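The records we work with from here on pair a chain with its fold. A complete example follows; check for yourself that the lines match position by position.
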Amino acid sequence: MKKKSGKAMLLAAALAMTTLAGCGQNKEAGADAGKESDVKNVVSDAGGEEKQERQAADNDEIVKLRVWGYGYTSTSEECDAIAEAVSEITREKIGVEVELVRNSDGEKLNLALTSGEKLDLVNAHSYPGGLNALVNNGMAMPLDDLAEEYAQEALQLVGEDMIIFGKISNTLYSIPNLKDFAVGYGTAMRKDVLEELDIDPADIKTINDVHDVFVRVKEERENLYPLVPTWEGGGMQKTFAFDALGPGIWDACGVLENVFEDSTTVVNLFETDSYREFCEMMYQWNQEGLILPDATTFNEANPCGTVGFASFDNVKPGKEKELREGWKREGVLIGLVEPFMASDGGGNSFFIPSVCESPEKAMQLWNLMFTDPEISNLFVNGIVEKNYTYVDDSEKVIRPVEGSTYDSLD
């Protein structure tokens, strides 16, 4: 494996755990890696380098860990190449080889967990009900003792204020990914159609403006449905500022109706005026022919790449890259709800499944995903010149290599 210089370590520890979940980094927008020395200083301050040396010295045999990451497009060949590049580092540091699997299918993940399939470190994002459901079903291992022993550096980087996202009933089950905890909401629209209709995205400020754009698209682009699902099976991103007080977007009854108000009263989402008004608006839009018919049975993951113009979506750094990779065309984000940090902010983090046979090694690998810039960069971006390349000699901003389908492992 070609070794990178310090400049080539694109992601500092503060971004390290955007690694395997699919809500990816904005490569072209310039995810600056920070400096490798910064990461080393954090690890050294916590005694991490000495611990890693002791762990490596104790490795009498190599343990193979299977990592299940969330993602849509990565091929098995790309995953195998990246896993081998990671393994070249982890064999020496912690006595571990990595097998990397990427999938976004929650049913397949549930089947793998219930059937006892070998899994050692898993992203929770696609599992129905998220971390809460995993814990309730006995599928996630408590981590307090493991993290205290093997992941002090990761805990230090995340910090006490954010660790709460990985706890259920005051027990740690996940170390939250260091990424966008606060997210805004709105719509994502095809850039080519906006340009063709001479619509300035800056003029789209409200949900009524969105409606008017959809009407124009229906009138002038008969081959496109103005609004399509955010993801396969009719799912859609939320569009107003409620906090579900846990995982799930539309499946939580007890919510805070508006996070921008001071009220801490928990209410039934489906009894609120805001939810009723939203349903009435969607019914009207459907009557106007603005919504893809039979959306709940539509089985394409990225309908805006084929039959649609826009979908409801979250608005955050790097989202344009996700749209480009999924839609295979440029998208424009229209923010309708200001960013806020909800209780499910750590929903796409990892957990160690109860079926894991080597939880100590899994935790050591997880810690390196936070603290080793080369491992983090491999998981997040892939292999230089195979999956990404630098835009200039500064080696701080990257772009995907044409033909690569590797999507960021959050």
Notes: The first helix runs from residue 36 to 45. The mean pLDDT is 82. The domain at 6-180+346-400 is CATH 3.40.190.10 (D-Maltodextrin-Binding Protein; domain 2). The radius of gyration is 22 Å.
